[in-house]
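quick one, two chains, predict together pls
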Amino acid sequence: MRSWTRLRSPGRASLARRAAPARARRTAAALLGAALALSGCGNYSTEDLRFLAALPQREDLAFAVPSAPNGALSACPPANASVWLWAKPVSDQINGGVDFLLSLVDVVRSISPTWRADDRRVWGPFPSKDHPGREIEVVMDRSYPAELGGRARYSYAFLARVTGTTDFTPLVGGAFDGGSASRGRGVVVLDLGAMKAVGMNDGTAAGTMQIGYDRASDPATIQLALASDAFGAVQFGYRYAGYAAGGGVFDFAFRDANATLFYVSTGFDARGAGRAAVAFQTAGGATGGFRQCWAANACLVYVLDPANVSCPQADQPCSYGVETDCPPVPASPF
Amino acid sequence: MIARRALAIAAALGLLAAGGPASAGERRFALLAGEPDGGAGTVRLRYAERDARRMHEILTSVGGVRPEDARLLLSSGASAFRRALEELGAASAAARARGDRTVLLVYYSGHAKDGALRLGGGSVPLDELRETLERAPADVRIGLLDSCRSGAIARTKGARPAPTFDVKTGPEPGPHGLVLIASSAAGEDSQESDAVGASWFTHHLASGLLGAADASGDGRVTLAEAYAYAYARTVGSTASSEGGVQHPVFLYDLGGAGDVVLSDLAPISGGIALSAPAEGLYVVLDRSGRAVAEVAKTPGAARRVALPAGRYQVKKRLADESGLLVARLDVDRATVPLDDARMDRVPLDRDPQKGWRGNRVAVLAGAGGQVFFSQAARDGLFPPAALGGLELSVRDDLGHGLAWGLELALGGGSGKVKIPDAEPIPVTFGEVAGGAGLWKDFRFGPLTLSGGGRVAFTWLTRSFPAGEHLPSQYFFTVTPGLTGAAAWRLTRRISAVARVRASYLFYNVDENRSLGFAEALVGVEYALVD
């Protein structure tokens, strides 16, 4: 638990203590008056922008997988690729978790810092709009570690407490290296258990959600680790890479209605065509895997599923095409 | 002493009954020459031409001279002078042949040296001028010379310095003969005055002709009244001057009955009227602040000064030197009574004759731009912005040529905030500033240069249209600075203005930084009260 103390200006304190002659006092008073008269007020701060730029935004952490043009899939023989169909809902769940995290982070974007120092910004404590009876305080620090060669590192913590209490509980912690989230690399951790402790979530989620992201080079990568099932997604280390030229990889996991757990590694090109390798574990403990490839319109071009896991329905083949029909996809950076 | 002597002149003349300046059957001809250049060894005169123009205006308005019978020569030289004199003489002869009485008046303002009028590179000997006038075919010939040592023209044939002289009277129906009046004695210099924008003698003669010399109060100014007034006022005005006292002289050789009426105020119904008890020196100034008439009023008789329609200021210096009485008058076709009690009492430094023209209120609308001196400030905080401004200025309200004004400026622009290792952030910048300024005007004809200080309350704001995740920001502070302007007067009310400001801004959000910025504004100023 942390608490924060406002700093006092040493200059004013020493001025008040000094017993100066009347003339000096008059001069000091005149100077002080002039300084006060010329002192401005406001939140016009470029440094604030630098601090805010270090916080991730939706587009920085989004898992952007291929989706159907205009939301409609084309009918195709023999069928749509099941992996393609699974990927979008899972990415939506992951992105929902990211949005939840960012909804906490974004509160600082609508208010000015309460206190500024050269390398620190503090917002709050201020009442939480979404959680009555709770107060939030945000602290951001900046440093210039040697290993970054003079570039900035930002670390931040979002804390909460029940109004009227003294101790804050960290909900979000993070660090970021670089000038802006869209160009650097960082990590942010959401403590769902802590949120539960202060009564700021529905109480069903627990553990942590940790996101590491690196947008300093191509491809931009995002790794999201759920320590427990949350946001409809299963506990897993989700990974996403997106290339500037289009295409990327998406590794995800999900559990189907039969409680079979799938671990999927996909790659897709700029048009959306892709290939996947899937491992599964049934509720009974059986394991196996299969491969699928699909075209840009999400239609299967190849499948090899000896365990018949991906083809429970009659119109879905368990073996189709040849592997050479699979599109080339970017290599995984992970 | 001077006043008593002047009055004695008028009394000696007997205020003889006289006809109007150009009564029925009388024709008047006038040559008026202003010659600032006296050739080698002389200094160019500043007001000679204005003197001639002023006398021309007076003689053609209240002096009975028809415009077509007047010749105004400005820097025209000796040949033109002789030619014009010859033409007017011929015209007078023709008029006399038709049975008219005629008056020929020659007025000259310029240099005289070594017994001759100096007209540019040429000269006209005083003896020649006098002989020409003596022989001129006119019943009355009048020479009015405002030039150094011009009294020599009278001395050469026995003229006497003022004040006493005799007027011959006889059985003839009207006056006839020669009158010569010179602004200074043979050994004296004639002086110009920047204060009145004229030579002293002409200034007082002109004032007298407009009514100041009308000692009898009959609305007509005779030759004797005009001379007496001009004599007294010229001696009084130059008594303490560095150039020494200046004594106008005359040769008055008139026969016949009556005096010559030089001006009749009746044609100009407009003017100002001083009541009988009024006492003191009243100076009438035109819109530009130049003296057009000066009345040394003594108690006893009312006095009217004829003035063309227009706006005038009248000032009177209080006897105890504690201040001035000033009145602003709009003269149309009626005579405006002037009463001390209705004049404003103002400090001496608000003397309208010394440039004080009363409060002048003007509105300036303009557009321009603003830029901060520091490149870092332009990139990171305050990008260059376009400005539009309104300014209300009040001049001549504080004395000492100081003016003050209130200003409001709105501005805005767009740019990019540059942050290390990050994409530049598009920004929209806005500004509202309201302030007050104090400056001093320096006038050079139609050009006015100004310099002074100003202080403004400045509200600066910026938003980030391409980034909804970034909140709008503002900064409010006081910005003192310097202001300068150049204004060119296009019309009486409208001026083109270019204004430049340099201001200081103390920025203290991220860090304490002293910043400077410049604003340039061009616009049009309209005088609401002038």
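The two ends of chain A are 36 Å apart (CA to CA).
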